[in-house]
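May I ask for an example protein's residues together with how it folds?

___
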Amino acid sequence: MANRDRSYAGNAPGALFVDHTCIDCDTCRQLAPLTFHAVDGHAEVHTQPLDAAALHAAAQAQLCCPTQSIGGAAPAQVRSAAAEFPLPLAPGVFACGFNAEASYGAHSYLLVRPEGNWLIDSPRWVPQLVAAIAAHGGLRGIVLTHRDDVAAAPRYAAHFGARCVIHAADADAAPGAQTISGDAPVPIAAGLRLVPVPGHTAGSMALIADARFCFSGDHLWYSRRLGRLHASRAVCWDSWPQQCRSMRRLADETFSWVLPGHGQRYQAASTTALRSELLALSKLMTEAPE
């Protein structure tokens, strides 16, 4: 629970605030960029929300904050925001919200499919979200894109009788999970294929769904600051040269959406446009690594 007595002095005067437990995961700035901004390694309220849309976005941010570092949104507004999750992004694709501190606030996603639903990475365990997933038909499986974003996945798997899938190189982070190995893509269900993209971690993977969606973990994201797709050497925990090679291989996959764990979601105009952007990023990574 956020504590006003520990709130940052730089918060704009008003009801909404961020306190000193903030871990600067960027969740609030993605959901409510007009309200929150980054200051010296944490978030602060830049502008108090006034209209209905801004109030609603701020309530979503308070709800999803993994450390509950945001306070001040009206309880009714927070309850209204909570009822929306999992939040529809595209037909059959939902953002789970309720980001977990154990994954440093990473986003997780629900993929609803006639043959069985998949969770991509894990939100924190929230009974309301569990009930919502059950209402969508439960879970067939959970894809863990890499070791950092396991969070409550074992608990969700046990509750729904689902299998977790992780790359063997990161398998120690999810004991008992099914593993894949090597660098070759692996089909896991109709229209779904896991593409190993080692670099950020040795076992990083992307999930490609229906030649349209790429759930990219922490391998690839859209940067609001740069205005383009991005990957950063500063948050590469295993091998930057390997991540550069993985990015080039990912450009051979077909998709137009990037749905990352950290960073901004992104939809390109077409799969061709997305491939061009990935090739440009791959070239940048190789020639001018950041």
Remarks:
- The first strand starts at residue 17 and ends at 18.
- The mean pLDDT is 96.
- Helices lie at 27-31, 52-64, 75-82, 127-135, 153-160, 240-250, 271-287.
